[in-house]
Amino acid sequence: MRTFGELWRSTILTKWVMAITGVLIVLFLLGHLSGNLLVFVGEEAMNEYGVWLRSLGHGTLLWVVRLGLVAIFVLHIVSAIRLSAKNRAARPVSYARTESRKSTVASRTMLLSGLLILAYGVYHLAHFTWGLTNPDFYNQTDALGRHDVYHMVIASFREPLIVVTYLLAMVLTGLHLNHAISSAMQTLGVSHPKYVTIIRRLGVGLSIAIAVGFSSVPLGVVAGIVK
Amino acid sequence: MRLRLHIWRQAGPDAQGMLKTYDLDNVSEHMSFLEMLDVLNEQLMEKGEEPVAFDHDCREGICGTCGMVINGRPHGPLARTTACQLHMRTFKDGDEIYIEPWRATAFPVVRDLVVDRSSFDRIIQKGGFISVNTGNAQDGNAIPISKTDADRAMDAAACIGCGACVAACPNASAMLFTAAKIGHLASLPQGQAERFSRATNMVLQMDAEGFGSCTNHYECEAACPKGISAEWIAAMNRDFAKAAITSRD
């Protein structure tokens, strides 16, 4: 009998790790997005949501989720780097000419888009979670003495450079997910002629919806819908 | 027609290779691609040069021996066509054609366009067979198999092991080949006894040979001369994971 430790190193199980962590990241993004969209409801909803998130399980649940997310991202990134290294080693001499037939810009740039999203993610945490890059925007309190998430977001997205960086990151996220979602389903063995086309279309649709959904917040601020 | 050919020339496995340019005149549109290379080789030999080495056998698209990357596509521009079944009428006068060997660590170049595909044989040796004697034709027919299952098994069994999937894959992955071989036997009752040990052993051998992993570009199914679907890869992913979690073999 082969132990799980032996099989763990196989490309297929490493891909399963990529796919499962990827699905969890998409679920996280949907949860994150649902919170962000509260900015369109107003200051009260947004700041109240911030207090609620931090109070879950007397403040412990947020940390459980945060540590879980760190584990998920580390597994996703480590697996990606291991597989990419193996893939590069598998073709040491490249072709003088290549003509692709089915691969897409998204599928061919997964490592690059992923690493750029990672770099943006660190900056994003420094900006909105740690309050390092724009402490003036971060250290605001509303009339009820709550952390003023609402005005932090608006003040941030009145800076053109922050808006442009954010939108670029969302384009990259959309591109990454464009290939990632249906790709994860294929890796997890979810494929059948009855629904393979639907899954691929849903994957593309969901990737666009997530990118557009997140982009709507800075665009809403720029357009003056959110003030 | 007149062609300019850029062909990979490499004297041996450890020799430094390079693309060499040859001008070839009076190519008939009725020639197959390999016949065109035969004509080139005759001319090279008359000049006292080494002919271009390439693999070929049946020349009717069923053996999987021939294979070269033609203008960036394994077996050339036509879908579901091996290099030997590609005819020069696909090209036009004055075309430049790049001809390269399959590129993969697991397919080392032997000479010119010839690569060593014994890594595929070693994957098959790890379980691409049924150990139990299935008996004579009559005994085989005694096992009821639905038409759907028989057709599906045949779809996967159509794999001729040419290696175009590996050549087309940006990661030089052998997932389509391995999946077709595993899936062919997994579709039939006779293949059930060894189904999960087969999936495990063949995939681990595939990894050990130095093929890349699958990132779902689907270039393989587009390049496959037998039109084998990447759906088989999903089926293999299922079987391998199931074996990893539940198998006692």
What does this structure look like?
The complex is a heterodimer of chains A (227) and B (249). With 227 residues, chain A is mainly alpha-helical. Chain A is built from 10 helices and no strands. Chain A has a single domain, classed as Fumarate reductase/succinate dehydrogenase, transmembrane subunit (3 helical TM bundles of succinate and fumarate reductases). Chain A is globular. Chain A starts with a helix and ends in a 5-residue tail after the last helix. The mean pLDDT of chain A is 96. Chain B has 2 domains: 109 residues, Beta-grasp domain (Ubiquitin-like (UB roll)), CATH 3.10.20; 130 residues, Alpha-helical ferredoxin (Fumarate Reductase Iron-sulfur Protein, Chain B, domain 2, Orthogonal Bundle), CATH 1.10.1060.10. In chain B, α4 runs antiparallel to α6 and α6 runs antiparallel to α7. In chain B, 48% of the residues are buried. In chain B, a hairpin with a 2-residue loop joins β6 and β7. Chain B is of the alpha+beta class and 249 residues long. Helix content of chain B is 36%, strand content 11%. The mean pLDDT of chain B is 96. At the A-B interface, α1, α2, α4 and α9 of A face α7, α8 and α9 of B.
